[in-house]
Design a protein that fits this description.
The complex is a heterodimer of chains A (about 475) and B (about 100). With about 475 residues, chain A is an alpha/beta fold. Chain A is about 60% helix and about 5% strand. The longest helix of chain A is centred in the N-terminal third of the chain and has 31 residues. Chain A is elongated. Chain B is flat, with a radius of gyration of 19 Å. In chain B, about 60% of the residues are buried. Chain B is an all-alpha fold. In chain B, helix 3 runs antiparallel to helix 5 and helix 4 runs antiparallel to helix 5. Classes of the chains: A alpha/beta (about 475), B mainly alpha (about 100).
Chain lengths: ~475, ~100
């Protein structure tokens, strides 16, 4: 009797919580897309998640049975929370993109594991009634496939951004990938057309399918490199969303369904927006070769001219308008604080200093803004490249710090260049250009940069942080 | 054919929900400034951690050791996704807030 009344009491609460959670997700996502409300939006979505988790543990029933193994579940949650919290707090801001990729992979793996456990448990009644070709089995198989691809792909993306996995570019790879994808779909069709009494008879196939999906995920991301990485992560992010939604189908769970699909569609749009920011199509990113592959016509003629720290300091101090173009090199050298120091010093001397932020400066859209905000650079000083470009001809000095591809004129001049068509910061329009670089190495896209050979360009070689520190001291002494 | 129409009828509410959610996702995200692309991606990343609910259900009804172990792993990884995702996003957004 008691159980029945609990049943009636719990389910409405659970369903209500799921609706509430879905609403909080939507609000959270909406608020995340405006700078002022973003942080609260994140918090609101987190509350929705917390409510959904607690309600599931307390009120979920499967055929009238409550959730068991609660101590183990709590233990798993505590372990996951501890690890997640520590990693997320400790990792440096520059490593943020690979961290997002890592956590995304974890979600994909969870979705794949759920499918693996659920596959042998498809109800025999359902199989007797409609065979293996039912929505349940389809949701499980798709969840497995998409979740696994997302996990494997994210791990490769993580390794690439972290610098311990290189790019693999073989022309035939795209045909191989298409074949593997066809094989995966073949697996789904094959499993769903078998005539069996119990799904567990087909379990070995699931593990083979898992292995094939891992291979696909790895090979899918291997050839993609350079500035395209954020696009891939965003795409894999929406994959995981879809994988989570498959779980929603499976358990008839509205929170999983809305949460997953919301991320799936929002993630896809975000991916397209990112592509647009770089003037590339999604298909081009996935199957095209970016960097290294293309041959550039431009031969390296001309000489590179260096400038001394003191000359640079004088040049900057007596300018009216200075624009700083920060790149990944600045982030890696952790030089954003010194950089801000320089801009404050110049500001005191009456120099107008602005930052030109390229959409993919750093490694991800918005990454550079985060890093500079960390160093307290006021938001108003950060100008997007499209906005600042018309202003550059009136700018006395452009200081390029650890950036390369985003100021490469080849994007405008050289149709054969792999970055042709990408919007750039038109640094060469300025009256003077100072480039801070570690050496004459190439950028992430591995192509020559003619800007460095320009008559107006002067190079300052060395680690960005050391060079900036020296520069700050020189400017102080003027 | 019967299977397909049956599936359609059975899941029509879910399909409804999916279609509406797709449009909602698109609507909610459009016109976001490039500055917020990364935090937004990260926030969305945390939200699909909702897969943890499935992991909890798996574990809560696990009837053998294998399911139990896989379920346990799924809950740990799902929690990593949720907690890590939200905390990282918060850390990124913290940077924007300071100079109010």
């Amino acid at each position: 009797m008691n159980e029945v009344s609990q049943f009636q009491f719990g389910i409405p609460i659970l369903e209500f919580t799921y609706i509430l959670a879905s609403v909080l997700f939507i609000f959270g996502l909406k608020m995340l897309s405006h700078p002022l409300t973003a942080r609260r939006g994140n918090f609101i979505a987190a509350i929705g998640m917390g409510l959904a988790i607690v309600a599931t543990i307390m009120f979920h029933r499967k055929n009238g049975e409550p959730i068991g193994n609660i101590p183990y579940i709590l233990a798993a949650i505590i372990i996951g929370t501890a690890i997640g919290w520590i990693i997320a707090r400790r990792v440096k801001m520059t490593a943020m993109p690979q961290l997002v990729s890592f956590f995304n992979g974890m979600g994909g793996a969870a979705a794949a594991l759920i499918s693996m456990v659920e596959f042998p448990h498809v109800s025999p009644d359902l199989i007797a009634k409609s065979g293996m070709a039912n929505g349940h089995v389809l949701a499980i198989l798709l969840g497995l496939m998409i979740g696994t691809i997302s996990w494997a792909g994210s791990m490769i993306a993580f390794g690439k951004l972290d610098g311990w996995i290189g790019d693999l570019r073989i022309k035939s790879l795209k045909y191989l990938n298409l074949t593997i994808l066809a094989v995966l779909i073949g697996f789904i069709v094959f499993i769903m057309t078998r005539h069996v009494q119990a799904s567990s008879e087909l379990s070995p196939l699931i593990y083979i399918m898992f292995a094939v999906a891992v291979i696909y995920g790895v090979l899918f991301v291997m050839p993609i490199g350079g500035a395209d990485m954020p696009v891939v992560i965003s795409l894999l992010n929406s994959f995981t969303g879809v994988a989570a939604a498959m779980g929603g189908f499976l358990y008839n769970n509205q929170a999983m369904l809305t949460g997953g699909i919301l991320v799936g569609s929002a993630g896809t749009i975000l991916t397209i927006l990112m592509c647009r920011a770089m003037n590339r199509s999604l298909l081009n990113v996935i199957v095209g070769v970016f960097g290294g592959g293309g041959q550039t016509k431009t031969s390296t003629t001309g000489t590179v001219k260096e400038i001394t720290i003191s000359d640079a300091a004088v040049l900057l101090s007596y300018s009216k308008k200075v624009v700083i173009v920060p790149g990944y090199g600045l982030a890696v050298a952790q030089a954003q604080h010194v950089c801000h120091e320089l801009d404050k010093l110049l500001d005191e001397k009456g120099v107008e200093v602005k930052y030109a932020i390229h959409p993919v400066a750093g490694r991800m859209p918005g990454h550079m803004n985060v890093l500079l905000a960390e160093a307290d650079v006021p938001y108003e000083q950060l100008i997007e490249s499209d906005e600042i470009n018309p202003d550059l001809p009136n700018t006395d000095v452009v200081v390029v710090i650890g950036a390369n591809d985003v100021v490469n004129p080849a994007a405008e001049d050289d149709p054969s260049s792999p970055i042709y068509g990408m919007p750039i910061v038109k640094a060469r329009d300025a009256k003077n250009i100072i480039v801070m670089k570690r050496g004459m190495g190439k950028g992430y896209a591995a192509i020559e940069n003619m800007l460095f050979y320009d008559a107006k360009t002067r190079m300052l070689f060395g680690d960005a942080k050391t060079t900036l520190l020296n520069l700050v001291n020189e400017v102080k002494s003027i | 054919m019967e299977n397909i129409s049956g599936f359609f009828l059975q899941n029509r509410e879910a399909i409804f929900l999916v279609i509406l959610s797709i449009f909602l996702g698109i609507e909610v995200i459009s016109h976001v400034p490039a500055v917020l692309h990364t935090p937004l991606m990260s926030g969305a990343n945390a939200i699909h951690g909702v897969v943890i609910i499935g992991a909890i259900i798996v574990m809560g009804h696990a009837d053998n050791t294998a399911s139990m172990i896989l379920g346990f792993l799924a809950v740990v990884l799902g929690t990593l996704n949720v907690v890590g995702g939200f905390v990282v996003t918060d850390r990124m957004l913290e940077m924007f807030k300071k100079k109010e």
